[in-house]
């Protein structure tokens, strides 16, 4: 289905497909093809009308993030799913990356979590509708990290302050940079800083993560994970750089391909220093 029917037909021809129904509405294509479900990968502004039409003709929907560009449209879609009795599922695939799952598994080692930070700096020239979006970084990209921290902490956001802007050299029409500070339900603060027009010193697509807890800190730098799906869990003892003696600070690190050492603070385990290496098994 596409509002531009010639584009839909061109895609069918490009992939050498036959007997593929095409049309400009969900109900039209569903009636012609016997469709049993809808995968909605339209631009975010079209999510609401496409999803509502699909659900009210009796079709469950898997929709690309975000659920909608506004809270009001998101609530309307939730109501439409309840009234129609159809499943509406939003694809937030980044939460299933192995490194993030491993980081979540290590949070118990950190104690109470005070602060989680994500830095995201990329400079893609993607063209098309994204370069015309009003809130391109927040709506199209930062939503991945916001969902990931929700999964990571098992805490709900209760308040947020956000400052978004568009740098003078940006090639986007809308705001391509932002800093947001979330207060989570458990008291943790989540700080996101990002830019989609940051040439040089770019971060991974999933961002650079740091968690600070009462007993230790953790970092996730998912350098190769988008390509491989594999990551290593590793950790190192980080000694204070100052000259006076004191307990070691434990840093847990998650980096693809790099196994390192994890040392517990000897003052926390009765003077017995324990160390081991840990490396995650790659998932197929």
Automatic annotation (TrEMBL):
Indicate yes or no for the key word GTP-binding: no
Q: What is this protein called?
A: Putative dehydrogenase
The opening ranks of the lineage are: Bacteria, Bacillati, Actinomycetota, Actinomycetes, Micrococcales
Q: Check the record and name the Gene3D superfamilies matching this protein.
A: Dihydrodipicolinate Reductase, domain 2, NAD(P)-binding Rossmann-like Domain
Task: Read off the InterPro entries from this record.
Answer: Gfo/Idh/MocA-like_OxRdtase_N (IPR000683), Gfo/Idh/MocA_oxidoreduct (IPR051317), GFO_IDH_MocA-like_dom (IPR055170), NAD(P)-bd_dom_sf (IPR036291)
Residue ranges of domain GFO/IDH/MocA-like oxidoreductase in the record? 109-201
Does the keyword Glycosyltransferase belong to this entry?
no
Keywords for this protein: NAD
Query: What Gene Ontology molecular function terms does this protein carry?
Result: nucleotide binding
* Gfo/Idh/MocA-like oxidoreductase N-terminal domain segment(s): 3-90
Lineage, top-rank taxon, reads Bacteria
